[in-house]
């Protein structure tokens, strides 16, 4: 009974669409689902506010976010890692 049981946290992959707040980024997560009746594949999207340390992620980066305790009213996710940096043209 002394071993620590680690909680399994939900993880999502998305693109950073805004980094204008302090220590917070807005991440757009898109998923493709099949329509129940018609069978057409449609894209569903959701935006999440995620906590990030200074200089961790910028707009356009592909990031993995994981669920955590509520940090503020709208923020209960944190950036786990940056998968791909945005290409600057």
UniProtKB/TrEMBL annotation:
<comment type="subunit">
    <text>Part of the 30S ribosomal subunit.</text>
</comment>
<keyword id="KW-0694">RNA-binding</keyword>
<dbReference type="Pfam" id="PF00366">
    <property type="entry name" value="Ribosomal_S17"/>
</dbReference>
<dbReference type="InterPro" id="IPR019984">
    <property type="entry name" value="Ribosomal_uS17_bact/chlr"/>
</dbReference>
<protein>
    <recommendedName>
        <fullName>Small ribosomal subunit protein uS17</fullName>
    </recommendedName>
</protein>
<dbReference type="InterPro" id="IPR019979">
    <property type="entry name" value="Ribosomal_uS17_CS"/>
</dbReference>
<keyword id="KW-0687">Ribonucleoprotein</keyword>
<comment type="similarity">
    <text>Belongs to the universal ribosomal protein uS17 family.</text>
</comment>
<comment type="function">
    <text>One of the primary rRNA binding proteins, it binds specifically to the 5'-end of 16S ribosomal RNA.</text>
</comment>
<dbReference type="InterPro" id="IPR000266">
    <property type="entry name" value="Ribosomal_uS17"/>
</dbReference>
<keyword id="KW-0689">Ribosomal protein</keyword>
<dbReference type="GO" id="GO:0005840">
    <property type="term" value="C:ribosome"/>
</dbReference>
<keyword id="KW-0699">rRNA-binding</keyword>
<dbReference type="InterPro" id="IPR012340">
    <property type="entry name" value="NA-bd_OB-fold"/>
</dbReference>
């Amino acid at each position: 009974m002394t071993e620590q049981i680690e909680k399994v946290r939900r993880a999502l992959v998305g693109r950073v669409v805004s980094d204008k707040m302090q220590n917070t980024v807005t991440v757009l997560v898109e998923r493709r689902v099949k329509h129940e009746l018609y069978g057409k594949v449609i894209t569903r999207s959701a935006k999440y506010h995620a906590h990030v340390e200074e200089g961790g992620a910028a707009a356009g980066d592909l990031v993995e976010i994981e669920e955590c305790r509520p940090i503020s009213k709208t923020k209960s996710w944190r950036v786990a890692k940056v998968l791909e940096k945005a290409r600057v043209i």
